[in-house]
Amino acid sequence: MIAAWVIRTAPTLEAAPIGRYNPNVSPSTIPGVPFRVTLHRLSGLVSPGELQIRHQVRDVESLRVERLRAALDKKLPKLNRWKQSGSRTVLVLEQNDIQFTNVHVVTDALLKAEAGRTDLADEVYLVTTITEPWWVHFVRVDRRTHFDLTDPEHRVWEIHPASLRDITARGG
User: Fold this and answer.
1) CB within 8 A of 156, min separation 6: which ones?
2) Do residues 47 and 28 both lie within one domain?
């Protein structure tokens, strides 16, 4: 049932820009299938002719936005005390889940969570720590977001955790 629906529906979809889902695509009901199905046509994330299937039990994206709003409510007042003294503020988010999280969905959710706020951090990065080396992803700097950059070398870089130095430890 789902396969036949995909074969019929896929050719009618417009491909979304690289790294994004088309926000105009709505879940569909397929007769005989006990859950709603959403089909996206993506650019650049999968090879032509390749199919990627994802099953979501909950509305993960709404939960992601809520979690980011809570993090912003907690962290931005602290960062803004530094900003008021003339410092540039940096918010670093950690990602240790490769199944449901990537820089694209985090950037999209962050932009939604930040909407209407005036107390934003100057820079936001996402660090993927599930593998070594770690990957530092450009999420937002000032008004430029991950989606504004087309050169992969400007979007992400690697860092080896062993090369980091603890600058917050208090000496005895």
Assistant:
1) 103, 135, 136, 137, 138
2) yes
Same domain, 143 and 119: yes
* Number of domains observed in the structure of the chain: 2
Judge whether residue 37 has pLDDT over 90: no
- Compute CA distances 18 → 9, 12, 43, 53, 147, whole Å: 20, 18, 5, 18, 8
- Which DSSP state fits 16? B
Q: Are residues 107 and 135 in the same domain?
A: yes
Residue 169 covered by a domain: no
Average pLDDT, the chain: 86
Is 123 inside a domain boundary?
Answer: yes
Q: Does 70 lie in the same domain as 23?
A: no
* Predicted local distance difference test score (pLDDT) of residue 56: 64
How many C-alpha atoms does 68 have within 13 Å on its Cβ side? 27
Question: Global pTM?
Answer: 0.66
Q: Across 58-62, 100-104, 116-120, which has the greatest mean pLDDT?
A: 116-120
